[in-house]
Write a structure and sequence with these properties.
Elements: H1 13-23, E1 28-30, H2 32-45, E2 50-55, H3 67-78, E3 82-87, H4 109-123, E4 132-136, H5 138-153, H6 158-161, H7 165-172, H8 179-195, E5 199-203, H9 207-219, E6 226-230, H10 256-264, H11 268-278, H12 283-294, H13 299-314, H14 317-331, E7 341-344, E8 349-350, H15 351-357, H16 364-372, E9 376-378, E10 381-382, E11 389-390, E12 393-399, E13 403-409
Parallel strand pairs: 2-3, 2-5, 3-4, 5-6, 7-13
Antiparallel strand pairs: 1-6, 8-11, 9-10, 9-12, 12-13
Length: 410
């Protein structure tokens, strides 16, 4: 039987530029030639491509490491494509086994609802909410029923499923794998069928699930989606991926001054990876900036620009400017405009107890260590005497570069 002719669309300069933006900072884009053809078709016909990102709301808050893939969505959104922010309220009931060495405990429907609302509110700080299609996979997964689940499960084999790295390791390590975990990648793949996705994005740990979407779309007679994976952002320590458990993260709801200062704390080398993955500057602009630094310009200038861009994204341009000034004041030994006001009693009070009660140190022993290290100031003067007792009055107390309190002692 003759195959229908495939229309070939020209790869124009604009298509080439869109491909370059698509490839920026990515780990893999599979298959690249198919994505190029999709971009060419979209440019010629004016029909936007459907770009899908699915997130399971397993936790209420996200950090800027989570926004790497959201930034890619925004880049594609700005190219004119239709981005779909898919909230996996149904699949969260199963729990994604990706990268796990044990079964993930499912969340309750109420936990999922609360987390989903917070997730999208925070994601909307990166995406343009007016141009974002928000969907929940319970829309179609709830309708599958027992018959639909059986029919879906018949479209993949156990042998292929066991090729997945985490299942393979758990099976050969004697660790349990529940049957419902096999359903997770099937349902994530079915999401792509339901949404008729042209491209699905995810982290490197999602590759198996993303490829499942391609397989199932072909099974259901659809044009298969392309797959784009993004690398995991290295955290503030310059070593491990950004993680709350590693305490090397920047939460996107952190206050502006803290966010700005944390970005400035990263290494000059790590800064360029962050520019690629987090900045909305073009690659050409970044290349010029990098050349200027190589030519002798102070790397701190580039880091300040990045810190202001990130801070403005999650707060405002005015907040970013204020955070920069706050950082300058602190670096000169100045006092920020707004610091906590604390009222204590018990004068005369030992400096160690004062630091603890003012929440400037977790314990009196830690307060002593900070004093020994020259990290405590009262009204701008460095304190070196652990036995110092303060009389009644009001003092500006500083610990390190960032902790301040105006303490009134009675």
């Amino acid at each position: 039987m003759n195959q229908p002719a495939v229309t070939t669309y020209p790869v124009t300069e604009g298509v080439g530029q869109a491909l370059e933006i698509s490839l920026r900072g990515v780990e893999e884009l599979l298959p690249k030639d198919e994505w190029t053809r999709k971009l060419a078709r979209s440019a010629a016909t004016g029909v936007p491509l459907r770009v899908k990102l699915g997130l399971d709301p397993t936790a209420p808050d996200i950090h800027i490491g989570h926004t790497v893939v959201l930034n890619k969505m925004r880049q594609l959104q700005d190219l004119g494509h239709q981005v779909i922010f898919l909230i996996g309220d149904f699949t969260t009931l199963i729990g994604d086994p990706s990268g796990r060495n044990s079964t993930r405990p499912p969340l309750t429907a109420e936990q999922i609802k609360i987390n989903a609302e917070t997730y999208y509110r925070q994601a909307a700080m990166v995406l343009d909410p007016e141009r974002t299609e928000v969907r929940y996979n319970s829309e179609w997964c709830d309708k599958l029923g027992a018959r639909g689940m059986i029919e879906l499960s018949a479209k993949y084999t156990v042998a292929r499923m066991m090729e997945r790295d985490d299942f393979h390791k758990r099976f050969h390590g004697g660790q349990s794998i529940s049957l419902h975990e096999f359903l997770y990648p099937m349902l994530q793949g079915y999401d792509s069928v339901a949404l008729n996705a042209d491209l699905e994005l995810g982290g490197t740990d999602q590759k198996f699930n993303l490829l499942m979407g391609r397989h199932l779309q072909q099974e259901y007679g659809q044009e298969p989606q392309c797959v784009l994976t993004m690398p995991l952002l290295v955290g503030l320590d310059g070593v491990d991926k950004m993680s709350k458990s590693k305490n090397n993260y920047i939460g996107i709801t952190e206050e502006a001054n803290t966010m700005f200062a944390k970005v400035l704390s990263i290494s000059d080398t790590l800064m360029w990876d962050w520019y690629t993955l987090l900045s909305f500057k073009s690659l050409a602009e970044i290349a010029v900036l990098k050349a200027e630094i190589a030519g002798g310009r102070n790397p701190k200038d580039a880091k300040v620009m990045l810190a202001k861009e990130i801070t403005a994204r999650f707060h405002s341009a005015a907040a970013a400017d204020a955070a920069e000034q706050d950082f300058i004041n602190r670096s000169k030994g100045g006092v920020p405009d707004e610091i906590p006001e604390v009222t204590l009693s018990g004068a005369p009070l030992g400096i160690g107890a004062l630091l603890k009660q003012a929440n400037l140190a977790p314990s009196t022993s830690e307060a002593s260590r900070l004093i020994d290290g020259g990290g405590v100031r009262v009204d701008g003067a460095v304190i070196s005497d652990r036995g110092l007792k303060l009389e009644a009055g009001t003092f500006v107390v500083q610990v390190g570069k960032r902790k301040f309190a105006r303490v009134t002692l009675a």
